[in-house]
Amino acid sequence: METARARRRPDPSAATDVEILIDPKKIETLAQKNSFADQAFASFLKTLDPKSVDAIVHEVAATVTAAIDCTACAKCCRALVIAPDYKDVSELASRTEMTTQDFKKKYMRLDTEGDLVFRQRPCPFLASQRCTVYESRPKLCRSYPYLDQPDFVGHLNRTLRNVHVCPIVFNTFERLKSDPRLKRDSPKAGHRDVPAR
Ligand code: SF4
Ligand code: SF4
């Protein structure tokens, strides 16, 4: 289950020549339009060495992330279903001065897979574009949108969904598609000798 954001503001020292699209409607329109090409590119990435792809993704995502202000976006906190784990629930209950039982009763429900998730979307702790439980936010909120994590190739389905939600993912994926290191004839990404998963 995937969740929401870290509190990121643009890095003033970040490259200024990075053209970033943040309008959610435009992103959704383009993500829909690009979906066939995105699927094809994802299939191509699966033929490459995952560690080489990770190195390129981490570099590109870091540049894009530095240019985006999450506090002006909060799309993930509005759009995604949040699934805190047991420890997250315990911390959130303590933060909101409730018992775990009362917290679950007030804020959570079981989803169709039997996971406990926040019953409300947007997230009940989002107020004026800010996370009101920031220091106690669930672990997955801290990790979203996961582009600094290993095994990008192993999580392409998740990324293809997040292209529709998160400007960081959308802009990173667009750059990856035109990155010369990820072209079919580039030796940089370390093509595999065997068919990909
Ligand atoms: S807990 Fe905070 S960071 Fe996580 S979805 Fe809710 S508002 Fe966003
Ligand atoms: S959707 Fe992406 S860009 Fe927007 S707040 Fe969440 S992590 Fe940041």
Q: How would you describe this protein?
A:
The chain is mainly alpha-helical. The protein folds into two domains: 24-68 and 151-182, no CATH class; 81-143, no CATH class. The chain contains nine helices and four strands, in the order H-H-H-H-H-H-E-E-E-E-H-H-H. The chain has helices at 24-33, 35-45, 50-66, 75-79, 86-95, 100-107, 139-143, 156-162, 167-177, and strands at 108-110, 116-118, 126-127, 130-131. A two-stranded antiparallel sheet has the order 1-2. Helix 3 packs across helix 9 (167-177) and helix 5 packs across helix 6 (100-107). The radius of gyration is 18 Å and the shape is elongated. The model is unreliable at 193-197 (pLDDT under 50). It binds iron/sulfur cluster (2 copies). Residues 4-5, 8, 68, 70, 73-76, 144-145, 165-168 line the site of one iron/sulfur cluster.
Key terms for this structure?
mainly alpha; 2 domains; disordered C terminus; two-stranded antiparallel ribbon; 197 residues; 4 strands; 9 helices; binds iron/sulfur cluster
In which order are the strands of the major sheet placed?
Answer: 1-2
Query: Rough shape?
Result: elongated
Strand content: 5-15%
Give start-end ranges of low-pLDDT stretches. Answer: 193-197
Q: Would you tell me the overall average pLDDT?
A: 89
How many domains make up the 3D coordinates? 2
Listed once per kind, the bound small molecules are: iron/sulfur cluster
Share of residues in helices: 40-55%
Largest sheet, strands/sense/barrel? 2 strands, antiparallel
Q: By helix and strand content, what is the structural category?
A: mainly alpha
Q: From N to C, what is the helix and strand string?
A: HHHHHHEEEEHHH
Q: Whole-number radius of gyration?
A: 18 Å
Number of helices: 9
Distance N to C terminus:
22 Å
Say how many strands there are: 4
